[in-house]
Design a protein that fits this description.
The complex is a heterodimer of chains A (58) and B (474). Chain A has one domain. In chain A, 90% of the residues lie in helices and 0% in strands. Chain A is built from two helices and no strands. The model of chain A has no long low-confidence stretch (mean pLDDT 90). With 474 residues, chain B is mostly helical. Chain B has a single domain, classed as Hydantoin permease, CATH 1.10.4160. Helix content of chain B is 68%, strand content 0%. Chain B is built from 18 helices and no strands. The relative contact order of chain B is 0.19. Classes of the chains: A mainly alpha (58), B mainly alpha (474). The interface between A and B is medium-sized, with 24 and 25 residues.
Chain lengths: 58, 474
C-alpha cells in the first residue's frame, strides 16, 4: 500500500510537469495539458498527505 | 518573498512545525537539524503567492532580458552570501532567537517597538498575498481585475472578494496555523512544479520552439527594455539589488537567526540557494513569461492579476496554485502579525488580536497599489527592519574588539539601549533624507544604510557605555 501511494504521488507530480514539456515540444495542446495538470493536482492532494506523513514519522 | 516572520517566538523550525521551544535559551546539541531540512524548507517557503506578481512587475518596469537573467542570478547569489556569512555564523555560535538576542542587546521596550513595526509590515505583506489570492477567487464571478495603475479599489466585486478571502484567512489564522503549515508543506513540491510548468508551457505561445529561439524572443517580446506607460524604468542594478534585499529582514536583518540556530554548521546558510533559485529565479521568470503571454494576446491588458494569468496557461490547477500560494503564505504572516501586536494588547486573547491583524491586512488588500507597487513596499519593508540586524552583527563581532560591552541591556538592566535606538531611528531618517533630498532610489538605500547604522551604533555605544561606567566607578 505504501509503495502504491508513493507511485501515485510521483505520477501526480509527473502529471503536473510533463504535460508542459509536451506542450513546449508541440506533442499535445494547451487544453490537454490543463486537464492532465488538474488530474495531477487531485491525485497529489489525495496521496501526498499520507506519503509525507509516513516520511515524517520515519 | 517568503512566509516566515521575524517574530521569533513562533518561528518554524526547519523540518518541523512551530518552534515554541528554546525561546530564551540556546538550542542544545541534541536538537540540531541536518542540511536536508534546510534545503527543503527554503525551497518550499520561497514559492509564495507574491512571486506571481514580482516577475510581471519587472516586465512592466521595462528591464531587459540581460538585466533579469543575470541581475537575478547575481542578486540572489548576494542574498545567499548574506545568509551564509552575516546571519548563520552568529546563529550557530549563540543559538538563540533573533527576538531574544535583540532583547538582550536593546532592552524590552525597544524590542516592543521593533515588534510593532514588524507586525504592521506583516499586515501589509499579508494584504498583498490576500490580493493575489483574490485575483484567482474572482475569476468564476467575472470580477473586474485591478489595473497596473490602480491604487484604489476598482469595483465593488473586488472589495467583496478581498473581504471574503481576507475573512477566511484571518479566521483560520486566528485559530492557529499548525494545520495550514502542514497543508503548506504538502502543497509546496506541487506548487514549485506548477510554477515551472507555467513557464515551460508559456514558451511556445511566445514563439519559442527551440532553445535557439529563447534569447531573441526574451529580448524582443518578454523583457523588451521598454516600460509600460506610467511605470518607472528599472535597470540591471534595480533587479540585482531587489533580488538581494527581497529578504533583507531575514539575512542582513538577522531574523533568520531563529532558523539557523538549529543548524549544525554555518555553511548551512548556503541552503538558502534552494529558495533563491527556485522561488526568486525560476518562479519570477515563469511569472514574467505568463505576463508576456497576456501582453502578447492583448497589449492593452497590463493588469498584474496572477489568477487569470495562471488559468490561461495551467487551467484550474493554475488557479488553485495562486489561491494556495497566497493563502498558505498570508496565513502564518497574519498569525505572526497578531503575535507581534499582542505585546501591545497583553490582556486581549490571541484570537482577537489575530483577527484585528487580519482586518488590517484585508483592508490593505483592498488597495491594488499594495500588489502593483509590491517592489516598492518590499524595499521599504527590508529597509525599516535592517538596522536592527546591523546592531546584532556589530554587537557580536565588533564591540568586544573595541572593549565595549555586548548584550548591553541584559548586563545593565536598561529597558532601552539608546545606542541601538539611535542607530535604528537615525538610520531611517538618514535614508529618508537620501531618498528625498539626495535623489537615491529606495532600491539602493540599504547599502549606505547598513554602514550608517554601523557607525551610529558604535559611536552611540562608546558614548553611552563610557558614561554608564563613569557613573559606576567614581
Amino acid at each position: 500500500m505504501k509503495m502504491l501511494l508513493r507511485l501515485i504521488a510521483a505520477a501526480a507530480l509527473a502529471a503536473t510537469l510533463v504535460p508542459s514539456i509536451l506542450v513546449a515540444s508541440g506533442a499535445i495542446g494547451l487544453e490537454t495539458q490543463k486537464t492532465v495538470m488538474f488530474a495531477g493536482m487531485i491525485l497529489w492532494f489525495a496521496t501526498a498527505p499520507f506519503v509525507m506523513a509516513r516520511d515524517r514519522s520515519r | 518573498m517568503e512566509n516566515r516572520s521575524v517574530v521569533a517566538e513562533n518561528k518554524p523550525s526547519p523540518g518541523g512545525s512551530a518552534a515554541d521551544e528554546f525561546e530564551r535559551e540556546s538550542v542544545p546539541e541534541s536538537r540540531l537539524k541536518g542540511l536536508r531540512s534546510y534545503i527543503g524548507m527554503f525551497a518550499g517557503e520561497h514559492a509564495a503567492g507574491t512571486e506571481f506578481a514580482i516577475g510581471p512587475l519587472f516586465v512592466a518596469h521595462g528591464v531587459t532580458a540581460f538585466d533579469v537573467l543575470v541581475g537575478l542570478l547575481l542578486g540572489n547569489f548576494m542574498a545567499v552570501l548574506s545568509w551564509r556569512f552575516l546571519c548563520a555564523p552568529i546563529a550557530v555560535r549563540v543559538r538563540q532567537t533573533m527576538y531574544y538576542q535583540l532583547e538582550r542587546i536593546c532592552g524590552v521596550r525597544l524590542v516592543t517597538v521593533y515588534n510593532l513595526a514588524n507586525g504592521l509590515m506583516f499586515c501589509f505583506l499579508a494584504g498583498a498575498m490576500i490580493a493575489v489570492s483574490a485575483t484567482a477567487v474572482g475569476i468564476p464571478f467575472k470580477m473586474k481585475m485591478p489595473g497596473l495603475n490602480d491604487w484604489l479599489p476598482n469595483s465593488i466585486g473586488w472589495i467583496v472578494v478581498v473581504l471574503v478571502v481576507g475573512l477566511v484567512i484571518s479566521i483560520v489564522a486566528a485559530r492557529g496555523y499548525d494545520a495550514v503549515a502542514r497543508f503548506a508543506n504538502i502543497a509546496s513540491p506541487w506548487m514549485v512544479l506548477v510554477f515551472l510548468a507555467c513557464g515551460i508551457a508559456a514558451l511556445p505561445r511566445l514563439g519559442i520552439h527551440s532553445p535557439a529561439d529563447f534569447w531573441p524572443v526574451a529580448k524582443s517580446v518578454v523583457w523588451t527594455g521598454v516600460p509600460i506607460e506610467g511605470q518607472a524604468q528599472y535597470s540591471f542594478w534595480h533587479v540585482f539589488c531587489f533580488a538581494w534585499f527581497c529578504n533583507l529582514a531575514m539575512h542582513v536583518g538577522m531574523a533568520d537567526l531563529s532558523i539557523f540556530r538549529y543548524a549544525r554548521k554555518a555553511s548551512y546558510g548556503f541552503a538558502s540557494a534552494a529558495g533563491m533559485y527556485v522561488g526568486h529565479y525560476m518562479a519570477w521568470i515563469s511569472a514574467a513569461l505568463l505576463f508576456a503571454v497576456q501582453l502578447q494576446a492583448d497589449p492593452s491588458n497590463t493588469t498584474v492579476a496572477p489568477g487569470p494569468m495562471a488559468v490561461g496557461i495551467a487551467g484550474w490547477a493554475g488557479a488553485a496554485c495562486v489561491i494556495i500560494a497566497g493563502w498558505t503564505t498570508a496565513n502564518p504572516t497574519i498569525y505572526r502579525a497578531g503575535l507581534a501586536f499582542q505585546i501591545l494588547f497583553r490582556n486581549w486573547s490571541r484570537f482577537r488580536v489575530t483577527l484585528i491583524a487580519g482586518a488590517v491586512a484585508t483592508f490593505g488588500a483592498m488597495f491594488p497599489a499594495l500588489v502593483m507597487k509590491l517592489l516598492d513596499f518590499v524595499a521599504l519593508y527590508g529597509l525599516i527592519l535592517m538596522p536592527m540586524g546591523t546592531v546584532i552583527f556589530l554587537d557580536y563581532w565588533v564591540l568586544p574588539k573595541l572593549r565595549l560591552t555586548s548584550f548591553y541591556a541584559e548586563r545593565t538592566g536598561v529597558a532601552t539601549n539608546w545606542a541601538a535606538a539611535a542607530a535604528w531611528i537615525l538610520t531611517l531618517g538618514f535614508c529618508l533624507a537620501l531618498l528625498l533630498l539626495g535623489g537615491i532610489e529606495k532600491f539602493f538605500l540599504f547599502i549606505p544604510g547598513w554602514f550608517i547604522a554601523a557607525a551610529l551604533y558604535i559611536a552611540g555605544s562608546m558614548i553611552i557605555q563610557k558614561r554608564a561606567y563613569r557613573r559606576i566607578e567614581p
